[in-house]
């Protein structure tokens, strides 16, 4: 299948500047090859501005100092946001590409209330068009107060300032007001190493996510949305082996968090980067497989109609062949007569015209049989190709589903049965 004819599934990273969108995408990217290989799928990545930004991000994180004084440079807004191709790659099996996946990682500047009109339009269209939304959540902002870790029903002191849940909620309320197609929303706490040390801490983090995004999650439960939305929480340790140290207010009045490695020479070792990737692929391939099943049903109906037509035309051809043989026999008998008698007989019974008419009719029907046979073969090939895609993706979905975590801070909050089922392998 030509690339421009392939189905494309789209994912957008949503969050303000500095919240960790690119670091999260880098942690996911680190797991791409292993995750796809386990599912017997192949990927064909394309080099784009975003793919280069991911590589630069990983290089920075791999060489980061023990006190993490360096940080990943925020994405620079483009003059024309529509020029951002995102991170694009094909997915398939064997040597056949089935679909394309496009991860878009817009600059955090696009999400600000005072962003340029073209940025706002870009974000609005992306949120309307993308099949999945990943929202990085700064776990430190959610889990820390000025006096230490949150207690009771507290929400982190800097959650509103850094994660801007009200802004995120407003954007998605606007985008999903008249939602007609299935969507996946992932809330992904990042820089959460300090809050995933044991199951109790991890589940506390999950509870804070639910509290910190209560308004958004309540909006998702509306009757008009619940049938089309899957919502998942997947924490990701975007660096690994780090611990929150302290916070500091910079000269610009913005709060910055500081971390240190544990141990001091710990390597870049993100954890759980495969989890949002697995959920994204599980959801998108389910949606893709559902659409393909509908296509398969239509293709099978078309094939059945063509096969019935072919059967009828073969019967017509058999009848025309018998008619042609009769007319040929009569014509040959006439040809054996003396020419004068033959000429007189033809005046009353033109066997030559009848023979050629029968031959013409036979040739026409034979051509129709050949054309219909070709259509049957082509449709049969389509049915087999579509079934092969469905089988390949069902197998992949099964693999993804088995390894999707659903405890210790991970959870499907909505849409498990409808959009995140486990197919029979």
Provide structural commentary.
It is built from 14 helices and twelve strands. With 425 residues, it is of the alpha/beta class. The protein folds into two domains: 3-287 and 402-419, P-loop containing nucleotide triphosphate hydrolases (Rossmann fold, 3-Layer(aba) Sandwich); 296-397. An eight-stranded mixed sheet has the order 2-3-4-1-5-8-9-12, sandwiched between helices. The protein has a two-stranded antiparallel sheet with strand order 6-7. Strands 10-11 form a two-stranded antiparallel sheet. Helix 1 (21-29) packs across helix 3 (49-62), helix 4 packs across helix 7 (165-175) and helix 11 (274-335) runs antiparallel to helix 13. The two termini are 26 Å apart. 36% of the residues are buried. The model is unreliable at 1-5 (pLDDT under 50).
Name the descriptors.
single chain, 425 residues, alpha/beta, 2 domains, 14 helices
In short:
The chain has helices spanning 21-29, 32-38, 49-62, 117-129, 139-143, 159-163, 165-175, 199-212, 214-220, 223-226, 274-335, 339-348, 351-402, 416-419; strands at 7-13, 42-45, 87-93, 96-104, 132-138, 144-145, 148-149, 183-190, 229-233, 242-249, 255-261, 411-414. The chain is α/β, with parallel strands linked by helices.
């Amino acid at each position: 299948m030509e690339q421009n004819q392939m189905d494309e599934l789209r994912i957008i990273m949503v969050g303000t500047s500095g919240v960790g969108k690119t670091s999260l995408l880098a942690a996911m990217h680190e797991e791409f090859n292993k995750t796809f290989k386990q599912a017997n799928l192949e990927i064909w990545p394309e080099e784009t501005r975003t793919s280069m930004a991911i590589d630069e991000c990983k290089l920075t994180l791999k060489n980061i100092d023990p006190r993490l004084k360096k940080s990943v440079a925020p994405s620079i807004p483009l003059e024309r946001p529509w020029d951002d191709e995102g991170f694009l790659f094909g997915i398939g099996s064997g040597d056949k590409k089935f679909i394309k996946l496009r991860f878009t990682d817009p600059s955090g500047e696009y999400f600000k209330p005072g962003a340029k009109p073209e940025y706002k339009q870009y974000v609005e269209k992306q949120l309307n068009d993308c099949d999945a939304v990943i929202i990085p959540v700064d776990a430190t902002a959610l889990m820390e107060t000025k006096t230490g870790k949150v207690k009771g029903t507290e929400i982190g002191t800097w959650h509103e300032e850094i994660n801007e849940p009200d802004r995120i909620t407003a954007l998605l309320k606007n985008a999903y007001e008249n939602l007609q197609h299935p969507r996946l929303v992932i809330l992904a706490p990042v820089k959460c190493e300090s809050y995933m040390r044991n199951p109790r801490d991890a589940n506390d983090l999950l509870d804070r996510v639910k509290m910190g995004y209560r308004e958004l999650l309540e909006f998702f439960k509306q009757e008009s949305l619940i049938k089309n939305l899957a919502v998942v929480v997947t924490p990701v340790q975007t660096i690994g082996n780090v611990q929150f140290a302290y916070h500091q207010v910079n000269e610009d009045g913005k709060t910055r968090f500081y971390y240190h490695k544990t141990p001091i020479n710990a390597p870049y070792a993100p954890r759980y980067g495969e989890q949002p990737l697995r959920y994204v692929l599980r959801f998108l391939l389910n949606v893709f497989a559902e659409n393909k099943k509908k296509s398969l049903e239509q293709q099978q109906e078309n094939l059945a109609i063509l096969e019935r037509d072919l059967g009828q035309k073969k019967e017509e051809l058999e009848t025309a062949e018998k008619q042609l043989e009769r007319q040929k026999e009569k014509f040959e008998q006439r040809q054996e007569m003396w020419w004068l008698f033959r000429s007189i007989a033809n005046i009353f019974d033109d066997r030559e015209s009848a023979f050629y008419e029968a031959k013409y009719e036979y040739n026409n029907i034979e051509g129709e049989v050949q054309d219909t046979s070709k259509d049957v073969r082509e449709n049969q090939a389509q049915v087999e190709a579509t079934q092969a895609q469905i089988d390949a993706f069902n197998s992949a979905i099964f693999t993804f589903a088995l390894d999707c975590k659903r405890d210790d801070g991970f959870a499907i909050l909505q849409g498990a049965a409808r959009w995140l089922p486990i197919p029979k392998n």
